[in-house]
Amino acid sequence: MSKVNFTQTVTIKELRKIIPLIGGELTVVVQSEPGCGKTSLLSMIAMDNGDKWRSPRDGTSIEGDKYDYIYVDCPVKDMSDIGMTIPNHATQQLEYYVSSLFDIHNGKPKVIMLDEFMKSPKLLQVIFTRLMLERMVGDVPLPEDVVNKRKSIVIATSNNASDGVGDSMLAHAGNRVCIMRMAKPTPNEWLEWATEYGVSRVVRTFVAMFPRCLASYTEGDAQKDNPYIFHPNKGALSFVSPRSLAKCDVIVRYRDLLGEHATQVALTGTIGHSAAGDMAAFLALEKSLVDVKDIIKAPSTIDLPKDISAQLMIMFQAVDVLETQDQLSKFMEFVERIPSNEIQGVFFTMMMRAAKSVKLARNNLKIAEWAKNNHDLF
User: Fold this and answer.
1) Last residue of a domain, one of 164, 181, 198
2) 193 and 156 in a common domain
């Protein structure tokens, strides 16, 4: 077995373009440190294809218009979950029967994700290797749509070898696939995603205020004392990652029912002690903030909070709730009272990047004027 070291990375957005283009002929093995969104690539590719997506929590295939999308949780599978050889009494021969997981016989091309492939039992790695290299499940080929020139696509995921969580791959197999290391999302990239998916403004404000929570241990000495992130040599089970940030959102939403103590303990068990302490301060701050609806009523005279985190929290709420040009223009009067152009820029960036607000922002004269006056920030 050999381990691979990397010096270059690709973003998840780049992978969404790369995999559909080459994945029918060359399997892309995506590696990253824990919790960076590798598994979500399957749902993203489905959405990019215009197919409706729901999470395959039971490991079964999801039927789309163009492809079937199949999630395989490799470490928990055994040989019988993939297929087996069964006697055919009529021919007195052994025949290979493929598991219903792959839904081979409906003839539709597949997008198959072999999640955590490098943690598979070694015997299964051999079976999965043939799937990645030859597009065969045992002795049965994956279907193709010849008319529309769509081949079945196979993706594999894994953690970095340097993460120290037991990922390895047969050397001869590694030489036949395309191994790519996926970068962690930047704070702005994560905030864009979080805004789109309705993550609470408290969690988003935490990321905006503490961007180093999405740094990587691979940056070396610069992050060796970073208390938020995953460190292979420290063995912490709870730490900040794009995944754990999204997971802790349910705790934030139910904090009033949970109570202060239970909320703090739950946050600590999800994102680690340091991040939980900092986020608790934001939870307390949120209760004292004025509502965006009240700001719209008196944008020029309402009290402007001096605390930067309070300003950010208000702006994240505004991105979520503003619906009309009049509301946006009035809120911009409030934003322009903020002394820091960089903080104002957070609101501008989120409005322009979030799919639900970008049309509103593009057609707003106040936004256009602000962008003209602050073009040097971008």
Assistant:
1) 181
2) no
